[in-house]
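Take a careful look at the sequence and tokenised backbone pasted below. I need to know what the token row says about the fold.
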Amino acid sequence: MADGERISRLREAVCRANLDLVDKGLVIDTFGNVSGIDRELGLIAIKPSGVGYDSLTPQAMVVLDLEGNKVDGDLNPSSDTKTHVRLYREFPEIGGVVHTHSRSATAWAQAKRPLPCLGTTHADYFRGDVPVTRPMTEAEVVSDYERNTGLVIVETIRTLDLSPVEVSAALVANHGPFVWSDDPMRAVEVARVLEFLAGVNLSARMLNPAEPAPDRFLIDKHFLRKHGAQAYYGQK
């Protein structure tokens, strides 16, 4: 496949994923963005900054290299571009990144609370708690805010005993969720599940504030039956 055709397909996939944020009720106004990467070409496509979803087309997606330099596109890329770029650079396993301000997940982020794994629905997607980052320092915010947002996410994930594939999201303190997966559409799916779990978790905590986490073996069973070499959920 020619490079031009690959770029066109990347743009189409990223545009479709951004529109899916609207269909799934994960964004209002322009509060969110999706990007995707072609690892072979080393190119990223991302939503343009401040453009309404009803105006999005594949050609409007901005194409960047892994240094964050614009390669193609008439518009400015998302203001969160440096965060996306940093995640792609640090997590070579991922192929799509989503950022939203969905209500329930953002509530956990702004409360600066990790989203604990309380049940099997959570464990189907995340092999443990979804972490919250530390608050950023004034120097980090003033000097290079979006790049440092990416770095604090990476710092947080690397404190875990789990990989970025096993816990594929982080709640940025005071801000909102960033989610990733192997392609843009699946990253949107994970963002939708994260929002659902954040709401369920609030309800569960109201019903029983002292409810402990499930046993580790149950979390691992539910995660591994859907992910990894021995997965058997769904159709091959």
